[in-house]
Amino acid sequence: xxxxxxxxxxxxxxxxxxxxxxxxxxxxxxxxxxxxxxxxxxxxxxxxxxxxxxxxxxxxxxxxxxxxxxxxxxxxxxxxxxxxxxxxxxxxxxxxxxxxxxxxxxxxxxxxxxxxxxxxxxxxxxxxxxxxxxxxxxxxxxxxxxxxxxxxxxxxxxxxxxxxxxxxxxxxxxxxxxxxxxxxxxxxxxxxxxxxxxxxxxxxxxxxxxxxxxxxxxxxxxxxxxxxxxxxxxxxxxxxxxxxxxxxxxxxxxxxxxxxxxxxxxxxxxxxxxxxxxxxxxxxxxxxxxxxxxxxxxxxxxxxxxxxxxxxxxxxxxxxx
Length: 321
What we know:
alpha/beta
């Protein structure tokens, strides 16, 4: 899989990234460590060498699972983690980074990101200047290679950029969730910042595997995803039916078609999770799906049948941030 530059840094990442929120198990159901480890290993073998995790995913469990999967091939992969908004003071950032390095069994991170802006989840307000000072010092010490942010607005990203080089931003972004296109992505294109789209398959909705009366198991956070609710869900199912002939024509799955559309957008990479090796290998194949301008436009139009009816709130879920 051909790599791309991460912002203006010297880090190279793959257009498809392995997402590992589910590896932490918290807020997910039916996740097995052995299957996750195998999925990550097979994903790397198939070309997805960039892996995204966070300290909050299972309170470090996701990072530990990633380490078990790739420690023996550390120099072949790019590891990205995130610091939670409860750890944004200078000393807290350092402690959080050390914790992530230990969990991931490595002495450096290729990318370290602020997971949510200060104040999220009732966290203490910390000036972005203080957090960025810590990140810049970690970078100078060689403990991180690049700095990124996640769930930041255009305004918040621009403010952070005043205090250091930001090479990536991680928003929720998919064919069915496109608020980032309005202000954030144009700003990223202008300033050469990579967009690492999470929930790139709309948390599985774009795989086409959910029926009209789907009910999530108790404890599955996707029940609070706005796209799985009411008229949004009905519009999404209709759009999926319209996408199926295109996927069949391209000889790919709905998920691969959706990922191929996403990584064809300006500066955009797709983070996608996998419960097992089969899913990881299938995700990797999306990078080889070539779409013409006409096909991209057709997919775009179908997607807008969902996104044109959504509100302006960029948060994907109904739980309080």
